[in-house]
Structure to design on (217 residues):
């Protein structure tokens, strides 16, 4: 069996950007360690975290992502009927697929001073641009982050807009439709997440990884 840290077919660097406090570090810890931290503390130390997944080609534009070495029920989604069909129990070592190591970079609080260096963006294939659905200013600043990306990152970088903290329903101040139409205008994909409740976090990262994979494969 392959070891998760040692062998992979592709390494994808993804950067997290957005205002301080929007939940970038918690999206990262939720995706890579399934952890969440309620205390607000500036990211210290961690430069990036990784997670290795196997991508299985199902249909032309649909892949299933699963943890490497995971054994158990495999679920395939039928696009036409939108239902999920369990096709059997299988050990993934025997299923053909590419192994993708995603290396997700987090800021160490530099976003507060807009002091992110171009080294941060270097080689990044994907970017998750995060705002807080309860903080309109963090949504207004998205365009500044987008400009920053367009100035410093590769022009082919796959950008995804993420509205985080959807669990704070009573505090919502940015409408889904507004962000959706902004994303469409700017050619970004868009999703809303809650790192706290683990809603759509997997999906957000996987959508970004899938888009990158589609471009490079
Ligand atoms: P960063 O500065 O963008 O890295 O943001 P952090 O991940 O450090 O999160 C800032 C604060 O928001 C922390 O107190 C987190 O616990 C909180 N937070 C992050 N994600 C969520 C979420 O999805 N829901 C809620 N309610 N709080 C969150
Ligand atoms: Mg942080």
């Amino acid at each position: 069996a392959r070891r998760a840290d040692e062998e992979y077919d592709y390494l994808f660097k993804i950067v997290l950007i957005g205002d301080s406090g929007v939940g970038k570090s918690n999206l990262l810890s939720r995706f890579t360690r399934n952890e969440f931290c309620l205390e607000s503390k500036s990211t210290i130390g961690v430069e990036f975290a990784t997670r290795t997944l196997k991508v299985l080609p199902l249909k032309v534009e649909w892949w299933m992502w699963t943890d490497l070495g995971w054994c158990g029920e495999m679920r395939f989604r039928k696009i036409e009927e939108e239902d999920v069909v369990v096709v059997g129990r299988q050990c993934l070592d025997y299923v053909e697929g590419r192994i993708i190591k995603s290396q997700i970079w987090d800021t160490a609080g530099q976003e507060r001073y807009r002091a992110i260096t171009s080294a941060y963006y270097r080689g990044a294939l994907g970017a998750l641009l995060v705002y807080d659905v309860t903080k309109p200013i963090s949504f207004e600043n998205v365009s500044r982050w987008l400009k920053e990306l367009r100035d410093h990152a590769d022009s082919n970088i796959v950008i995804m807009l993420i509205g985080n903290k959807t669990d704070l329903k009573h505090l919502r101040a940015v409408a889904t439709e507004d962000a959706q139409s902004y994303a469409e205008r700017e050619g970004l994909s868009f999703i809303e997440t809650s790192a706290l409740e683990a809603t759509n976090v997997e999906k957000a990262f996987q959508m970004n990884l899938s888009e990158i994979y589609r471009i490079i494969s």
Observations:
- Strands lie at 10-17, 48-59, 62-67, 71-78, 83-91, 98-105, 126-132, 158-164, 189-192.
- Confidence is low (pLDDT under 50) at residues 58-63, 68-95.
- Helices lie at 24-33, 118-121, 136-140, 142-152, 176-186, 201-216.
